[in-house]
Amino acid sequence: MRPALLDPLFASLDTLPGVGPKVGEFLARLFGRESIEDCRVVDLLFHAPHSIVDRRHQPGVMNALAGAIVTIKGRIDRHQPPPPGRSSMPYRVFLQDDTGELALTFFKVKGNWLEKQLPIDDIVIVSGKVDWFNGRASMVHPDLMVREEDAETMALVEPVYGLTAGLSPKTLRRTIEAALTRIPNFQEWLDEALLEKQDFLTVRDAFIALHEPRDATDIDPRAPARRRLAYDEFLAGQLSLSLVRQRLRILPGTPVKATGALSGPVISALPFSLTGSQTAAVADILADMAREERMLRLLQGDVGSGKTAVALMAMLAAVEAGGQAALMAPTEILARQHFTTLSRLAGPAGVKIDVLTGRTKSRERDAMLERLASGETDIVIGTHALFQDTVSYHRLLLAVVDEQHRFGVHQRLRLTAKGVSPHMLVMTATPIPRTLVLAAFGDMDVSKLTEKPAGRKPIQTVTLPTERLDDIVERLRGAIEEGKKIYWICPLVEESELSDLMSADERFQILVARLGPVAGLIHGRMAGPDKDAAMLAFKNGETRLLVATTVVEVGVDVPDATIMVIEHAERFGLAQLHQLRGRVGRGDQASSCILLYKGPLSQTAHARLSILRDTEDGFVIAEEDLKLRGEGELLGTRQSGTPGFRIASLEAHADLLEIARKDAAYVIERDPDLTTPRGEALRTLLYLHRRDEAIRFLRAG
Ligand SMILES: Nc1ncnc2c1ncn2[C@@H]1O[C@H](COP(=O)(O)OP(=O)(O)OP(=O)(O)O)[C@@H](O)[C@H]1O
């Protein structure tokens, strides 16, 4: 049971003042959750600021750098409302300081609030982003405007947070401030000696310091508050992994003897022969599965290296031994794609396959659950719906978890907690650095697919500025006429006033207007069946160009798609670009990838794109990504930190990971059921970091 002391932090977000349905929806989107019901107050605490606004530094208008957020104190000189009847023109208020003039620019101004708030000759302090145009400085909708006499009320240093369209910085900050008041006084779960040695803050102080930075050094991952929280995050992860391993040792596995009765015919019907790496991985897996001990193996393979075929061979072995296998995919699209592929490959051999996702209708679902429970179904594919409490298996011998790069042990834990003890194969895309494997999975056996299937041609990658868009569209017209298939990737779905990113919707309209009805559209906010239809139309060739967001990033397999255009490539993380690009070059035709960027590029962004242009080796890319991200440039939405961690970063906190691993081992050895006072406190830690599923394994849980 979760300690009562955590209740205020695990209350739903809408228990915080100012969080209604609208703000709730924005926050859910910010945290990547379906709805506000899935968000807790504690989520806000872990949403760390990525920079600060420092209003102590007031450079003067003429010294303000374009694009920088600056604070300027000056006298209001004059107002320039839009001419009558031209309300779409901006309202400008001119402010002067010793160095020059700044135009405060406002759109859609109603009433006379500006005259009241910024009367002529008043001295005011404004803060916001400065733009330069023809030697004139302007600031569009300042973030802050206060009169000189109210200056004390102004926060001199403010944290800046990642936002989502519609959510204002002010609202988010107010909500986070409210969340901070809910932090209880925790019983310390760290060892006294470690606290002293590392000079760690208490958890409560660390959260407060995280959200109340006093200067830029407080934003650095090495800041004391972040180190404390990162350590806790690693410790919670390592502890829960150790608890699982301890449990795994207790529950024996069932030895699985592959007979070849199914895999034989399936292999001979494959349209290709397995690569050496695939064969070796299959051999490793079958050897593990034949043992009494349960398998816990990681299958790593670069994009397009053919992990699915390996997983299929393992699943067939389970079926041959009279059992069942489950394959859990990270997304609905992928679950359905696996279903189609595996049905095609294994269906003819008489293997019964079902697909179960959150979207499966209740009647169909009931029938499916019955088939699973009776053992009629051999292989079930699905999303996390597979491991809900209502699902019971006849004889589950193997669980394959296709994690791609959503690392975490949660689903695996849930499965083990169901009392079944299948062998476990975890698949991840992109070779990931060893430290990351350790952080995400603990010590696991690893098989790697180092070879690409024969006949693959290198993907020709070019980087081009957005200005070349028209040429590209013309070239695509030619390519479509030749029968080629093209992905066009956009970063966001919605048109946002705050950003100049081209949304998928908007790009789709433009491309249809230019190229005709050959284009399709797919994005995360579409209804499930619409997504399927869009994918299918592209697969079948009814559409030849698929405008997509990153929903196609993981696993999507359309082998005859050969061209990919990625818009705003500079905004994606390297590993993510590698994943995206991996959607082409999956067949024997030559493929190309066009990375469109909007300049000017920062040095890091430039380096990032060059690496991608120069190599297709996922391992090199992953290592470089880790190195480059360290430069503090927060590009890419999900790739901006270490996957699966909210504060901890392997790059900045590798030393802490090692300590946490030892600490966890020490605890488990002496207090395997977490019953000592420290053990009790550590349970709170596990809940706080949502690693509490491990607690169910404890005898006194
Ligand atoms: N040995 C092989 N020879 C030729 N083609 C193969 C071989 N193995 C798999 N393929 C094909 O290569 C493509 C990629 O395989 P698969 O979808 O399993 O990749 P993956 O490793 O899951 O990659 P990603 O992570 O990019 O999705 C598929 O179209 C598959 O049919």
TrEMBL record:
Residue ranges of the TM segments: none
GO MF annotation: an example: 3'-5' DNA helicase activity
Swiss-Prot/TrEMBL keywords: ATP-binding, DNA damage, DNA recombination, DNA repair, DNA-binding, Helicase, Hydrolase, Isomerase, Nucleotide-binding
One Pfam family per UniProt: RecG_wedge
The Helicase ATP-binding domain, residue ranges: 288-449
Gene3D superfamilies: Nucleic acid-binding proteins, P-loop containing nucleotide triphosphate hydrolases
All copies of domain Helicase C-terminal, residue ranges: 468-627
SMART domains documented for this protein: DEXDc, HELICc
Catalytic activity as recorded in UniProt: Couples ATP hydrolysis with the unwinding of duplex DNA by translocating in the 3'-5' direction; ATP + H2O = ADP + phosphate + H(+)
EC number: 5.6.2.4
Top-level taxon of the source organism: Bacteria
A Gene Ontology biological process term: DNA repair
InterPro entries to which the protein is assigned, alphabetical: ATP-dep_DNA_helicase_RecG (IPR004609), DEAD/DEAH_box_helicase_dom (IPR011545), Helicase_ATP-bd (IPR014001), Helicase_C-like (IPR001650), NA-bd_OB-fold (IPR012340), P-loop_NTPase (IPR027417), RecG/Mfd (IPR047112), RecG_dom3_C (IPR045562)
Function: Plays a critical role in recombination and DNA repair. Helps process Holliday junction intermediates to mature products by catalyzing branch migration. Has replication fork regression activity, unwinds stalled or blocked replication forks to make a HJ that can be resolved. Has a DNA unwinding activity characteristic of a DNA helicase with 3'-5' polarity.
NCBIfam families xrefs: PRK10917.1-2, PRK10917.1-3, PRK10917.2-2, recG
Family: Belongs to the helicase family. RecG subfamily.
Protein name as annotated: ATP-dependent DNA helicase RecG
Organism (species): Ferranicluibacter rubi
Gene name for this UniProt entry: recG
